[in-house]
Amino acid sequence: MANFRALLATKSDAGTSLAWRNLGLDDLMDGNVSVAVSHTTINYKDGLALTGKAPVIRRWPMIPGIDFTGSVTHSDHADVQAGDQVVLTGWGVGETHYGGYAGMARLNGDWLVKRPPQLSAAESMAIGTAGLTAMLAVLALERNGLTPDRGPVIVTGAAGGVGSVAIILLAGLGYAVTASTGRSSEAPYLKALGATEVIDRAQLAGPARPLGKERWAGGIDAVGSHTLANLLSMTQYGGTIAACGLAQGMDLAGSVAPFILRGITLAGIDSVMAPAALRREAWQRLARDLDRDKLRTITTTRPLSEVEGLAPEILAGRIRGRVVLEVS
Ligand code: NDP
Known about the structure:
alpha/beta, 15 strands, globular
């Protein structure tokens, strides 16, 4: 591909701006693998980058887009061959290295994961960073001894990307899932994904007591702040909460009571710098465990050209599930 379209974020004295440009391979940053991008997606973090609401972009100019999938066109990396179908999530792509909102990408082959053959290109982006994060959270819960017989689990930010995939995964593994959402109109959607109970997120949004009634054996929190503190204070003895998000806030005002009186574990989840072996494990588990029919029901497909308009929507919590963006 001689030339391709790319969304370029630039910064000047007048502020930041986005513009579509025709670029060539020589305009891309250094890397030992080139990929023809077929699909990308929009995550909450992409929304922050595109709107400038948080300093996600740390090198200017930048092609945003923290995820993409596509076909390798050239490789000087020993483990990557031309023609390989690959997935990229994280590693600072779309933040400090040119990202997925472009027809081509060039980057370090160490960052790529081979797309499991069970997953189509579109499905891999329906999963994206959000779905990978949900799977990393499930793995963390399992490593801390959580099993379905221990009791119900809670998922916050339920109708968002991480939340929707987390519900599908946990329900598929046999857990009774409580979904916490601010959108009561999405209760039928959440139940169709496998939630057994839907609660109003307002119940968890205020300051937490040191210890509350023990309501769940574990959970996945995409929200942070008071919500995470409440989750910890309401987790059963010996349970684990996996924390991966900050949709309510970055603060965490709680007490140590859940840790020292109930032996609760707070497991931190980071998808950006997650080691390659853990990513491969998570993608294999996604290929094996994620119900593909349910994945389809949470997915909307749009052309990449519409990404700018989607950014304020995802930050406002108005996007349900996941959005796949078609590049070519
Ligand atoms: P989405 O925007 O798709 O989902 C976020 C959901 O959070 C919303 O849909 C909404 O769910 C809920 N929410 C929004 N605002 C608030 C609020 N003020 N109080 C409580 N709940 C709120 O984003 P993603 O699923 O892509 O990401 C979710 C979070 O996880 C983000 O904070 C993101 O930065 C983080 N993240 C972290 C990763 C990591 O590596 N640790 C990787 C990926 C994401 P509802 O309407 O159901 O209430």
